[in-house]
Amino acid sequence: MSQRKGSSPKFIGPGAVQRLAKQTQREFKLTYAAAVAKAKQQLGISPMIVTIGSTIVDRVVQFTSEVTLNGATAASYAWNFGDAQTATTEDVSDQTYATSGTYLVTLVVTDTDGKTVTATKWITVGSAMEATIEHTAALLVVQFTSEVVLNGATADTYAWDLDDGQTATTEDVADVTYSGAGTYDVSLTVTDTEGLTTVATTQVTVAAT
Fold first, then answer.
1. Are residues 145 and 178 in the same domain?
2. Is residue 11 over pLDDT 60?
3. Does residue 2 sit within a domain?
4. Whole domain around residue 109: which residue ranges?
5. What residues contact residue 82 under an 8 Å CB cut-off, 6+ apart?
6. What is the distance between the alpha carbons of residues 159 and 186, in angstroms, rounded to a whole number?
7. Domain end: 96, 126, 156, which one?
8. Distances in Å between the alpha carbon of 68 and those of 16, 72, 101, 185, 193?
9. What CATH number is given to the structural domain containing 146?
10. Structure letter (DSSP) for residue 196
11. Contact predicate 62/52, CB 8 Å
12. Mean pLDDT, the chain, as a whole number?
């Protein structure tokens, strides 16, 4: 986490805000909180700016907060990682997601004046599966095999569309016999135990003689 001042040419510290707030409070008979807000407005102090940084390795994420402050100090941090997990530290190391997917991360920063700023960021964790199809043909008969690269999950189902009106649900398919010579479009959809899917396609050409 880093905290930096605003980009104004001259930094206006909290002491200046407090002095002007007290003067404003006496002059306009305001509450102190209202006087502080008015003083910041008069001094041209902008609100906090908060951004979220992230480094992702598979399902493990390092989160950092980038906070630009002007006239106050960050007092608290409230993270929500989009999967029911939370944290209250400035930065978060080794945040692990149980399943692959896309999550909305939220960080709420509250400063010493009681002002809050919310930053959000979408992240995608976990590597997608990769599937390929291999085949060998002998006249009208074809042997199909699947090659699936998984990352942190297990293949759950296989759905083959072998064209020519034929389907299969096994990992590999042996002795698929086509009705006639030609080129057929074959697809394989693999679903893992987390419900994520990947699709592989190929063409196979068979001959009657």
1. yes
2. no
3. no
4. 46-126
5. 103, 104, 105, 106
6. 11
7. 126
8. 18, 10, 30, 56, 42
9. 2.60.40.10
10. -
11. no
12. 84
Say yes or no to pLDDT of 8 above 70. no
Q: In this structure, which amino acid lies at residue 183?
A: T
Q: 94 and 115 share a domain?
A: yes
- What are the C-alpha distances in Å from 138 to residues 145, 160, 179, 182, 204? 15, 20, 13, 13, 11
| Judgement on whether residues 70 and 115 belong to the same structural domain of the protein | yes
Give me the mean pLDDT over the 33-37 stretch.
71
Question: Pick from 69, 96, 126: which residue ends a domain?
Answer: 126
Q: Percent of the chain having pLDDT more than 90?
A: 49
Residue found by looking up tokens 């009705």 in the block: 179
> Are 136 and 195 in the same domain?
yes
Q: What are phi and psi of 21, to 5 degrees?
A: -65, -45
The answer on 55 and 108 residing in a single domain is yes
Q: Which tens digit of pLDDT belongs to each residue from 142-181? A: 999 999 887 667 888 999 999 999 999 999 999 999 999 9
The pTM (predicted TM-score) of the whole model is 0.49
How many domains are there within the chain? 3
Place 126 in a pLDDT band, splitting at 50, 70 and 90.
confident
> Which tokens hold the place of 114?
């009681």
